[in-house]
């Protein structure tokens, strides 16, 4: 007896199951002297979209978004400087370092103008990028937006859980990092943990993590936050996703910047935490594609 397609249940989201739905290329490119890992999918003649991950993350954060977006756009996801399998120079990774890395990546790939999608730290980076290089940005999509507040409790939690996972990259320690990003804990897959564990076990990762976590130092963070004037200066169409089960800092930021950015729209997603693009990829993909295709 044939089982109806709608009765087949997948126990978890797998990186490979998601990426197997599309043709893609995984490679490295020299971006301003930084060997940068990237994933590329979609017709090169289509408009570009670049996905930017969060603190000490990797491009796998967008595994559930590439297939749908690459039907309409030329998509890239990158490992930021100091993260994933990209080079880890011995400098603190403040926002200007990330911004220039993104610019160098675009230059290396011949991307003149792009839409940018960022989660958490990624949203902070692309917001600052848009204030400095508005001519190179078509649209912004901000998920779990950061770059507005400096909350000591939140910063200490980020430092503690990520430092612990790199100092002792056991399965449980790495799993704890990723579980903290989700509201629906059952959505976390073993292969996502395995990739992050391998990344955190790389030689030199302890020093790189210290450089990454510099933004959790109160003084360093404050000098990197965007001012109200900078938020208001963002001129491109901006979609802001508010995750209703995320930490208050990020939900507060999402609502604030939605009011301040002149050409912004705000959409709330329920039953998701810090990674709405992964936790409820079907809803996010629909919302973001409608936004991008309308522009």
Structure description:
By secondary structure, the chain is of the alpha/beta class. The protein is 42% helix and 18% strand. It contains 13 helices and eight strands. It has helices at 15-19, 66-69, 95-109, 121-132, 152-167, 171-179, 190-200, 205-212, 218-224, 228-232, 248-260, 276-279, 281-294; strands at residues 24-31, 34-41, 48-52, 74-78, 114-119, 137-143, 237-243, 264-269. Strands 1-2-4-3-5-6-7-8 form an eight-stranded mixed beta sheet, sandwiched between helices. Strand 7 (237-243), helix 11 (248-260) and strand 8 (264-269) form a beta-alpha-beta unit. It is globular. It starts with 14 loop residues before the first helix and ends with a helix. The model is unreliable at 1-8 (pLDDT under 50).
What does the secondary structure layout of this molecule look like, with pairings?
Elements: H1 15-19, E1 24-31, E2 34-41, E3 48-52, H2 66-69, E4 74-78, H3 95-109, E5 114-119, H4 121-132, E6 137-143, H5 152-167, H6 171-179, H7 190-200, H8 205-212, H9 218-224, H10 228-232, E7 237-243, H11 248-260, E8 264-269, H12 276-279, H13 281-294
Parallel strand pairs: 3-4, 3-5, 5-6, 6-7, 7-8
Antiparallel strand pairs: 1-2, 2-4
Helix pairs in contact: 3-4, 5-6, 5-8, 6-7
In short:
The protein has 295 residues and is α/β, with parallel strands linked by helices.
Write out the strand line-up for the largest beta sheet, numbering strands in chain order: 1-2-4-3-5-6-7-8
Describe the largest sheet.
8 strands, mixed
| Poorly predicted ranges | 1-8
The run of helices and strands is HEEEHEHEHEHHHHHHEHEHH
Which structural class fits the helix and strand makeup? alpha/beta
Q: Rough shape?
A: globular
N- and C-termini, Cα separation = 47 Å
What is the share of helical residues?
40-55%
Average pLDDT across residues? 94
Work out the helix count: 13
Question: DSSP strand (E) fraction?
Answer: 15-25%
What is the tally of beta strands?
8
Evaluate the radius of gyration. 18 Å
């Amino acid at each position: 007896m044939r089982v109806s397609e709608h009765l087949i249940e997948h126990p978890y989201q797998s990186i490979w199951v998601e990426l197997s739905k599309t043709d893609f290329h995984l490679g490295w490119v020299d971006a301003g002297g930084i060997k940068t890992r990237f994933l590329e999918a979609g017709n090169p003649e289509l408009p570009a979209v670049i996905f930017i991950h969060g603190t000490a993350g990797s491009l796998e954060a967008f595994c559930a978004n590439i297939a749908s977006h690459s039907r309409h756009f030329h998509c890239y996801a990158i490992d930021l400087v100091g993260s994933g399998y990209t080079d880890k120079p011995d400098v603190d990774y403040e926002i200007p370092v990330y911004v220039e890395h993104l610019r160098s990546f675009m230059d290396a790939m011949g991307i003149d103008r792009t839409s940018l999608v960022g989660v958490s730290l990624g949203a902070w980076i692309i917001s600052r990028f848009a204030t400095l290089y508005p001519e190179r940005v078509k649209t912004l999509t901000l998920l779990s937006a950061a770059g507005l507040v400096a909350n000591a409790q939140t910063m200490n939690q980020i430092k503690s859980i990520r430092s612990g996972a790199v100092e002792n990259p056991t399965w449980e320690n790495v799993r704890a990092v990723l579980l903290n990003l989700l509201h629906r804990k059952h959505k976390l897959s073993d292969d996502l943990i395995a990739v992050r564990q391998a990344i955190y076990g790389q030689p030199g990762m302890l020093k790189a993590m210290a450089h990454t976590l510099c933004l959790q130092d109160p003084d360093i963070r404050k000098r990197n936050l965007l001012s109200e004037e900078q938020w208001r200066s963002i001129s491109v169409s901006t979609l802001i996703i508010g995750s209703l089960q995320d930490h208050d800092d990020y939900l507060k930021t999402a609502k604030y910047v939605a009011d301040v950015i002149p050409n912004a729209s705000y959409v709330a997603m329920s039953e998701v935490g810090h990674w709405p693009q992964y936790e409820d990829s079907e809803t996010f993909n629909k919302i973001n594609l409608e936004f991008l295709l309308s522009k």
